[in-house]
Structure prediction request, 225 residues.
Amino acid sequence: MLDLENRQRARLLAALVVLHITIIAASNYLVQIPMSLFGITTTWGTFSYPFVYLATDLTVRLFGTQLARRIVFCVMFPALAVSYLVSVLFQHGTFAGWGALLVVDRVAARIVLASFSAYIVGQLLDILVFRRLLRVKAWWVAPGASTVFGNFMDTLVFYTIAFAGSSNAFMAAHWPAIAISDYSFKVVVCVGLFVPLYGVFLSWLQKHLLILTRNGQTYATGRRA
Prediction:
């Protein structure tokens, strides 16, 4: 784990908070745009949202769980507001106009609340599992397992809050099957794409930070716990 000075830690925290909010906002828009892959219907949000888990896992490995948890708690309320704005202003992937903000959209509000809750539960579980497995020598075990468990809770919490007993009769009746399909696809994408991507980013960041240290800059001390 790399140690940072207080000023550098604050800057890193701010940058990672902005990154999380950006990913969440983009995912709330992209989840409204369907796509088909290998005959399976999903959305573009499936490919954008896992970047949150990638960023969290890298943060835990390089800078520790304390910073990772601070990011989650700093992000949750801004993300709630941003998610609602994106959900109301962009409906079915098209701009609904600023007038949409003047109408309270209960369906959108419930989905945003579900997204908010799922983010907190999924991220905190991801951090917990990742930290427990960090000592395993194989680098892929911690990000792989934490992503699988984190996405499971994320998906379960989201679909339960958003659609259980919903006024949308179709979603109220079929959300368990849709949730299982969604989760299965997420696992395939995360394990097949984002875990290898995590390895690439980890290697680059470790090399980059150590190079900065050797050049006499004070971004990181290079000391490991």
